[in-house]
Each structure stands twice: as structure tokens, then as C-alpha cells.
Specification:
This protein is α/β, with parallel strands linked by helices and about 280 residues long. It is built from eight helices and 13 strands. Helix 2 links the parallel strand 4 (about 60) and strand 5 (about 100-105).
Length: about 280
């Protein structure tokens, strides 16, 4: 397979490494091309600028991330960038077999602990979810098959914010309980490669998958478990973080496709991170 990863950062590099292990040809576009993983072919394309001359491509993975949590940054990354991709492919008459778009479960506005799946309503109240949905829709209206992957909170090596917070004694309040959802970065990369491989083999993909582990868990439970593993005493804070919502992500559709998680819950995912930090 000939694959282009747009916005080839941490997640994109891990996807590329998985593809390279299967002997596929991988191109990567990002601002700092020297930070591409070894073996990924550099492509000098910074969205939302028009594309340079593109090679023949089977798949495109759109993993661009916003530079900051502002309307302008999100519009640039998730809408203007998508529009430039579409116009560049049309102008150069490049027709990929499928485009994969990395989105977020932040498009769901549920706040009462509801279970959420691919059929749940998306009515985001903030600019971030609204612009992500606009980017998704722009791709769905394009001439090519599209699969959107809505990721929950990514964690793993280099993404250890919760470990640092617990180590610093920063805990959520004991009540109200707030469900949190996460996906280990390695499982996130593997999930995308799994779906791409199915498509290449002729299996019909859905247009949308939620990418989250198998066990939504209260934030209080996760931080308490981490503290226990580190031998720390839990001292509940005075408030519960508002970002991230309060819902339970159901990723059964991904599991039904045959994908098997290496890190099905926070316990398997954080254990090696704790070992590395001891």
C-alpha cells in the first residue's frame, strides 16, 4: 500500500512505523520533516497550503492537530486543511481508495454518564466539536470513500499528564463521579492500520468508528489506582475538571471488526508507564 500521513506527529509516526513493519510505502507531511520516524518518506506539504506534486496514493490518513485550543487554530486544522486536501486531490486527479480522518469523541455533548456509540447524537456546544464535525462532513461530501475515527483521550509514552498530576498531588473532587475515556496511543495506531488492512483486503468498512478502550472508568477511580500504585495518599481536590464531558464511550463496533486491544483498560496501559517512571 502507498500511504500518505498528513500531520505526521506522534500518532502519525506510530501509524507509519506499523505500516513500515508490513513493508508498505509511507509518506509523511509535517512542519518538522526531520522528526519523521525512520523509513517514512518526507513530503514537504504544510496545510492549508496547496499540495506539491503528489505521488500515486492508495490511502490518506489525516492526523493534523490544532496548534492551540482556539477557534482559529481548530478552523485551520480541521476545516480549512480538509478543504485544501480535497481541492488539491481534485486538481491533481489523485484518487485514493479511502481517506481516514482522525477526529475526537469531543463531538459528543452528553454530560450525564450516558453510554455513547456511533449512532449517538452529536450536538457539541463548543467550537472544537463543531469544527471537527464540519471537517468530517466536508470529507463525507468529497468524491472518495471516507472513514472517520473518533478518538477518546490519547495517553502513552510521552503523554503522561495524568501521572504527573497524581505525582504532584492533584486529584479531582471525590464527587460527583466523572466517567473518563482513553485510548493508548499504540492501540490507536494499531486500530487504524487494522481497518486500513481490512479495506485493502476488500472488507467493507463503516464510515465511523469510535476508538477508545474497553473500560470507561470514573476519573476518581483512575487517579486513585495510580496513586496506590505509586504509594501515594489520595487527597481529593475541590472540583472535577469540566473538559472531556461525562459519558461512557462504547467501542464495540471496532471490536466487532476483529480488532484486539493490547491495553483494554487503564490498568494494562498505565502499568508499563509506571514501571518506566520508577
Amino acid at each position: 500500500m502507498r500511504v500518505l500521513i498528513l500531520g505526521c506527529g506522534d500518532l502519525g509516526n506510530r501509524i507509519g512505523e506499523n505500516l513500515l513493519q508490513q513493508d508498505h510505502l509511507v509518506y509523511g507531511a509535517r512542519r518538522s520533516l526531520q522528526r519523521l520516524a525512520p523509513g517514512i518518506q518526507p513530503l514537504a506539504w504544510t496545510l492549508p497550503n496547496d499540495a506539491p506534486e503528489l505521488p500515486p496514493l492508495d490511502y490518506i490518513i489525516y492526523t493534523l492537530a490544532a496548534d492551540g485550543f482556539t477557534p482559529d487554530a481548530y478552523r485551520l486544522a480541521y476545516l480549512e486543511g480538509v478543504e485544501t486536501l480535497i481541492s488539491s486531490l481534485k486538481r491533481q486527479k489523485v484518487s485514493p481508495k479511502r481517506i481516514f480522518f482522525i477526529s475526537s469523541t469531543g463531538v459528543f455533548a452528553q454530560e450525564n454518564g450516558e453510554e455513547v456509540d456511533e449512532n449517538s447524537a452529536t450536538e457539541p456546544l463548543d467550537f472544537s466539536g463543531q469544527l471537527l464535525l464540519q471537517g468530517e462532513e466536508a470529507l463525507y461530501q468529497s468524491p472518495w470513500p471516507v472513514t472517520v475515527l473518533r478518538f477518546s483521550g490519547i495517553y502513552g509514552p510521552g503523554r503522561e499528564r495524568m501521572l504527573r498530576q497524581v505525582r504532584a498531588g492533584e486529584y479531582p473532587a471525590a464527587t460527583p463521579l466523572k466517567f473518563s475515556n482513553r485510548i493508548h496511543i499504540e492501540d490507536g495506531a494499531r486500530a487504524l492500520v487494522h481497518l486500513m488492512t481490512l479495506d485493502d483486503q476488500g472488507t467493507r468498512l463503516q464510515e465511523l468508528y469510535l476508538v477508545s478502550d474497553c473500560e470507561p472508568a470514573p476519573l476518581q477511580e483512575v487517579t486513585g489506582w495510580l496513586a496506590h500504585q505509586m504509594g501515594l495518599r489520595v487527597k481529593p481536590g475541590k472540583s472535577v475538571p469540566q473538559r472531556g464531558g461525562h459519558k461512557r464511550i462504547n467501542s464495540q463496533r471496532l471490536r466487532d471488526s476483529g480488532f484486539q486491544f493490547r491495553y483494554p483498560s487503564y490498568r494494562e496501559g498505565y502499568a508499563p508507564l509506571l514501571d518506566a517512571n520508577r
